[in-house]
Each structure stands twice: as C-alpha cells, then as structure tokens.
Automatic annotation (TrEMBL):
Membrane topology of this protein: Peripheral membrane protein
Record keywords, A-Z: ATP-binding, Cell membrane, Membrane, Nucleotide-binding, Transport
Coiled-coil boundaries: none
GO terms for cellular component: plasma membrane
Organism: Neptunomonas marina
PANTHER family from the UniProt entry: DIPEPTIDE TRANSPORT ATP-BINDING PROTEIN DPPD, OLIGOPEPTIDE TRANSPORT ATP-BINDING PROTEIN APPD
Class in the EC hierarchy, top level: translocase
GO MF entries: ATP binding; ATP hydrolysis activity
Subcellular location per the Swiss-Prot or TrEMBL entry: Cell inner membrane
Similarity field: Belongs to the ABC transporter superfamily.
Protein name, per record: ABC-type dipeptide transporter
Length: 330
C-alpha cells in the first residue's frame, strides 16, 4: 500500500455564478522516501492540490469528490481534531513566503517549542534541545543565538531554513513544499534545494515539490506531474519527461527554458495564457494554445494514455499510439 494515494480528487469553488472546478480527476500515489515534482504555470492548480492533500482548502473552496488516503485513511473525511494529529506531525507543509509562516512577535525558539509541545508530551527544556538540533541539521550558523531572535532579524535564506527546520521538527513522513525558493536569489535557491534533498534522503521522507522551475524538478525529483487548468496532463519518471516530453504543453514548457534559445534570440514562449476557472475551454483545455490542435481536441476531453513509462492526456499522442499499434499488427 502506498504511503499517500490521491484518487479521483475534485475540488470546487462556489461562486455566485455557480461552482467552478479547480481540480479535476487527480490521481497519483507516493511511496515512502519518493520525491514527486508538480509543475505548471500559475493558475494550473498546483498549490490548490497541495492544500487539498491536507484538507486546508477554505470556503468557498471544498473537496467535492475523491479521496486522499494517507496510510489507508481518507484525510478528506477526518474531523478537525483528527486532522490536527496529521498536519505538521505526519505531513508537513513548507509555504512560499517564510514571513507569512513565521509569527513576527515570537522568537524562533518560542515558535519551535510551541509546535513540539502541541504534538508531543515533553518538558519545555527538552523541546528546546530538539529545536536546537533541527537548526543544526539545516545548517543554521550560531543556532543557539538564532533561537532567541525574531524572524525580521534574519535573512530570507535563513528564514527559509528555519521554516524547513520547523517542517522537520516532528519527523514527518511527507513534506509538501510549495515554491519553497521563489523569493530567494539563485545561489540561495540551490543551497536550499540541496539541503532539502539531503534531508529527505537521510530521513527517508517523501517530498512533494510544487514549482514552476523545471530545472529544480529535474535535479531533485524522481517522478513528476505536469498540470494544466486543474488537470494532470502528463506524469511519469522525471528524466523520461524532461528528455522526451510528449504533451504539447510540456514541450512548450521545455522550449521556454532560457537555455533552449540561442544567444541574441528572443526566448521561446507558449502563446496565450492559462484560462480562468470560469472559462475552461470545451474538450482539451490547452486546445486554444496548441499548435497541433485537431478538431477532436475542441470537443472531447482526452483520456490518459499510456506512453512508455508515462501517462499523457492528449488526443495526438493517443492517435500516434493507435497508428503504432496498427503498424505492429501488420
């Protein structure tokens, strides 16, 4: 049994004009120690998926269908007090902005000790020792001093390391990292991602990395999912998708990388923009932006097709597979 299994997950947001679907037919599993990347443009539904796993979607959002099974237990059905035993304890989440995560009027030590005492029966002195160990683990210099400092006294990279340390406080089985390096400069980004990778490998912690950076995904994760308009349109081993993207949208993301353009030329880009939830196109949601669009793409939602070790939701890929199968029979 997988550590975490998401089955047919659907999330809606209730608006005055009616409910709109933010996530549709999300299916994936996560094994202990596995590192999964979730990529896509802003508005693809990546962060909504991360919040949905922990049932942190607030009204007017709600899980309308499906299950999020953690060790066989559906988190979507748990009551608030039951979820509190899972959140932070068994599944931790690292958010984009550490200043939104850390309380500005409490010292780092107070926040870490408070987190431990909320989930574990221990003395405050023992909790402080564990907090100090975690700061050392994430390579914070002078950790004893940092425990008594406030968030505003630390640099952005330091604050992000502290957020990671808080995520590791209770030795979780899964960490969900939502754009953990967005606000940091490139050199600090690399340090933070190397740190997270090493910590996950050392502690056999499963990682869900939500990002728009394909370079980070290729270096850190073993498997990846590409999302578009609330749906997974390609998933499989990271190396296989990076080296041979099959969905036109994934190909567009790869071609948009700076290193794919020649010196002096404009960067490649996918024409158009992600559609708003209220106006998702009929058929394949990517069809208005796709250079390979066929008539069937404008009317029918593509099923997920097996292609090598990947699954791809694309009519063109499905047609190519059918033609290949017919050729093999002949």
């Amino acid at each position: 049994m997988a550590l975490l299994e998401v089955k047919d997950l659907e999330v809606c947001f209730g608006l005055r004009s009616g409910a709109v679907k933010a996530l549709r037919e999300i299916n994936f599993s996560l094994e202990r120690g596995e590192r999964l990347g979730i990529v896509g443009e802003s508005g693809a539904g990546k962060s909504v998926l991360g919040f949905s796993i922990l049932n942190l979607i607030s009204r007017p959002g709600y899980i309308s269908k499906g299950a999020v099974n953690f060790e066989g237990q559906n988190l979507a059905d748990l009551k608030p007090h039951q979820l509190r035993e899972i959140r932070g304890n068994r599944i931790s989440m690292i958010f984009q902005d550490p200043m939104m995560t850390l309380n500005p009027v409490l010292t780092i030590g107070q926040q870490m000790v408070e987190c431990l005492l909320a989930h574990r029966k221990m003395r405050e002195s023992d909790a402080r020792k564990i907090a100090l160990q975690k700061l050392q683990q994430v390579q914070i210099p002078s950790p004893e001093t940092r425990l008594d400092q406030y968030p505003h006294e630390l640099s952005g990279g330091m604050r992000q390391r502290i957020v990671i340390a808080i995520g590791l406080l209770l030795d979780p089985d899964v960490i969900i990292a939502d754009e953990p390096t967005t606000a940091l400069d490139v050199t600090i980004q690399a340090e933070i991602m190397d740190l997270m990778l090493n910590l996950c490998e050392q502690n056999n912690v499963a990682l869900i990395l939500i990002t728009h950076d394909l370079g980070v995904v290729s270096e850190v994760t073993q498997n990846m999912m590409v999302m578009y308009a609330g749906r997974v349109i390609e998933r499989g081993p990271t190396k296989e998708i990076i080296n041979d993207p099959q969905h036109p949208y994934t190909q567009g993301l790869m071609n948009a990388l700076p290193q794919m353009a020649q010196a002096g030329q404009k960067l490649n880009q996918i024409k158009g923009a992600m559609p708003p939830l209220q106006r998702i196109p009929t058929g394949c949601a990517f069809n208005p932006r796709c250079e390979y669009v066929m008539e069937i793409c404008r009317h029918n939602l593509p099923d997920s097709t097996v292609s090598g070790n990947c699954r791809v939701a694309c009519h063109m890929v499905a047609e190519m597979k059918r033609e290949q199968a017919m050729g093999d029979e002949v």
